[in-house]
Amino acid sequence: MSGVPGAAPWRVMARLLMVKPIIPYPPDQGTRIVTLNLLRMLSRHFELGLICGLPNKEDAVHADALRPYCRDVFTYLLPNRKSLAHRVLYRGLYTLKSSVRSFPLETYYCCPPELSRLVAQVTSASVYDMAQFEYWFTAPAARFARVYGKALLEHDIDFLRFQRKLAVTDGFWRRRSIERTITAVKTREVRAYSEFDRVLTLSEADRVIVERLSGIRGVAQYLPVMVDCDRFAPTTEPKVPSSIAFLGALDADFNVDALEYFCGSIFPIVSSEVPQARLFIVGRRPPQQVMRLADGRRIFVSADVADVTQHVGRCMVQVVPLRFGGGIRIRILEGMAMGMPIVSTTIGMDGIGARPGRDLLVGDNAEDFAARVVEVLRSPLLAKRLGERAREFVVSEHSEPAVESRVVEIYSALKEQAEENRRHIKSRTADE
Predict the structure, then answer these.
(1) Which residue of 107, 185, 343, 345 pairs with 159 in a disulfide if CB–CB is 3.0 to 4.6 A?
(2) 15-226+402-431 with 243-398: one CATH topology?
């Protein structure tokens, strides 16, 4: 554990503790980007602390990048990463628990007892007004937080993601396993909603679902995602002719499925219409299923690149052929901010308020998706118009100036709720 004061002098302001299972740096995946941007904005209005797990010992150096925003940074090494013996032990233990309870493995890896102990220790030693926890499976750790206000940030509604996965999964036993996971996750996820003062969602659609499932009016609030529109801006470099970009975390199951679907069912149709078409896959940690798709002639993989804008921005169209998933796709918003024409499935653009046909194109079967891609590749004017409207949408709805006031309003309301809870508890204690 390490507690490090920030470099800047801190004014007297409300104190907010952010709890994230995995350190939100480097910003190489959507959930980390969301948290990092929140830290940037909130640090101007609240005094922040951060608790996060380290996937590896080497990740401790990334805390330095977070100190400009957080007065205190508390880290711990995930127990399964301490040694090879620990990895084997916890792999067996977590696999057994997962098979018995049907929870996804990540719920055990990302919320070990060490997180609960650290939450209790930090909130006992420091006076935090409120705390925010990420993901429903951190609810057990939240019970140890000695604060007056608690919020849950749901990056997606987990059981819905598994329901969508079930719809594209073959095989009796694989489907049976997913069905059991859906039942287990839904029960625990919905129960978690009632354990927090606020549940924050990254889309309005998810907010409505959370409120309906919880049965608690006003418990859920839509927290808009911020995009760095200065970093993700249209490039002046010339476009690579007939180039198609796919951007995302390549080790995520929904992205692996999307790429296999695109390369197996959509790209052959595109290639028959545009023989010179090329697909550039950009992202982190590609598994063997993705690497096998690359042939070095028409399909290329760029893994763990330092700056995705240099790779994606020169392509003519960005594709998001997701068949399942949840939450909001940050990489779509970043591509739109870069002025990229986007072709997506309905599930891929889920939660994004852009208008199909105006800000992006949508195709929900292989033939329609391929036709939309071909339209963009053949029409520079259409590509230019879609890209301009896409950027206009992101700047209007997701740029820092557009989002910050709403974010501050949400967390200020949480602070007021914490103060009301504190007064109620003090009054009840005095009466007793």
Answers:
(1) 185
(2) yes
Task: Output the CA–CA distances (angstroms, integers) from residue 130 to 34, 197, 384, in the order listed.
Answer: 19, 10, 46
Q: How far apart are CA 318 and CA 315, in angstroms?
A: 7
CA distance 131 to 198: 11
What CA–CA distance (Å, rounded) separates 335 from 342? 8
The CA distance from 108 to 103, in Å, is 8
Please report, as a single letter, which amino acid is at residue 122: V
Q: Is the pLDDT of residue 154 over 80?
A: yes
Q: For the chain, what are the domain ranges?
A: 15-226+402-431, 243-398
- CA dist list (Å): 386 to 166, 185, 368: 33, 39, 17
Which residue from 31, 26, 159, 150 is spatially nearest to 104, judged by alpha carbons? 159
| Integer Cα distance of 265 and 115 in angstroms | 43
The yes/no answer on whether domain 243-398 falls in CATH 3.90.1200.10 is: no
Q: What does the pLDDT look like over 388-400, one tens digit per residue?
A: 999 999 999 999 9
Euclidean distance between CA atoms 261 and 253, whole angstroms: 12
The whole-angstrom separation of Cα 366 and Cα 265 is 6
User: How many CA atoms lie less than 13 Å away from 411 in the CB half-sphere?
Assistant: 27
Query: pLDDT exceeding 90 applies to what percent of the chain?
Result: 84
Instruction: Note the CATH architecture for domain 15-226+402-431.
Output: 3-Layer(aba) Sandwich (3.40)
